[in-house]
Automatic annotation (TrEMBL):
Family annotation (PROSITE patterns): IG_LIKE
Protein's recorded name: B7 like protein 6
Pfam families linked to this entry: C1-set, V-set
Taxonomy, superkingdom: Eukaryota
Organismal lineage: Eukaryota, Metazoa, Chordata, Craniata, Vertebrata
Ranges of residues in domain Ig-like: 1-94, 113-194
């Protein structure tokens, strides 16, 4: 087997490598190939695919081994539309009578979080405190870190805070990904708050700013610049106004380096960075 670890993004296709040592071409009619995946909870093995001569069976939809590739000594397993449940240790077992060989590869599945930052008016508080919610959704694996920074006139450089924050649990979605929400109670002297999300799928942390000038302004008068940092692909961004109307858009990053998006419209002023 070539390699001990492989990484794939959610919903992508992947080929898990397994090479048969020895001379080629091989007579596949006298060969057997079985792929197993180890369950991550109870560590029991389950068949994913098997092939004996002209017989083959996929125990996971979209699993296959190329007969043409097998003749050349390539017993790699192809999986289409990878989901979180596909993550784990895979074992390839190849029999070329009378020889037998096997090897393992650990497959990691990653899904980047989609970030939403919006204001919520507390309905259970008599003092009418306002809260900012930072939500990370659709990420995998489960571990994620959400932190807050505040910027004040006295401290324009900003500082990380730990008080006034309520972090919810990671909630599992039907597709196996997770959502998590962090809530920050607003202070009167805060000029801007920033939510920072760190996840193994992100090459660098995702930072979203919420200027306090967004709150309680009618008509709406805001300026916003979003800094999107991530790998190639589409990124969903949701913005919320104080009146709870949300503006959503899809952003495609063409390069892995930082991209800047500026929003302008009626009642908005330009902000340069």
């Amino acid at each position: 087997m070539e390699g001990k670890n492989q990484t794939v993004l959610l919903n992508d296709n992947v080929t898990i490598s397994c090479k048969v040592p020895g001379s080629t071409p091989l007579n596949i009619k006298g060969m057997g190939v079985i792929w197993y995946r180890k369950h991550q909870v109870d560590e029991t093995e389950h068949k994913v695919f098997e092939m004996y001569g002209n017989y083959q069976k996929a125990f996971r939809a979209g699993a296959s081994v190329s007969p043409v590739g097998l003749e050349k000594g390539d017993a790699s397993l192809h999986l289409s539309g990878v989901k979180p449940r596909d993550a784990g240790e895979y074992r390839c077992e190849v029999v070329v009578t009378p020889e037998k060989a096997q090897g393992t590869v650990f497959l990691k599945v990653l899904a980047s979080p989609k970030c939403t930052l919006f204001q919520e008016q507390a309905t259970t508080k008599d003092d009418g405190d306002k809260y900012i919610l930072c939500k990370a959704s659709g990420f995998y694996p489960k571990d994620i870190n959400i932190t807050w920074y505040i910027y004040t006139q006295e401290n324009p450089q900003g500082q990380e805070i730990s008080e006034g924050i309520t972090n919810g649990p990671a909630i599992k979605n039907e597709d196996g990904t997770f959502n998590k929400t962090s809530c920050l109670r607003l202070e009167h002297n805060v000029v801007t708050c920033q939510c920072v999300i760190r996840h193994i799928s992100l090459p660098t942390s995702c930072r979203s700013n919420f200027p306090m000038s967004w709150i309680g302004k009618h008509p709406l008068n805001i300026s916003i610049t979003l800094h999107l940092v991530g790998a190639h692909g589409r990124h969903a961004v949701t913005l919320s106004r104080p009146n709870e109307q949300r503006l959503s858009l899809q952003v495609t990053l063409s390069r892995p380096n930082e991209q800047r998006l500026s929003l302008q419209g009626r009642g908005l002023r330009e902000m340069r960075g």
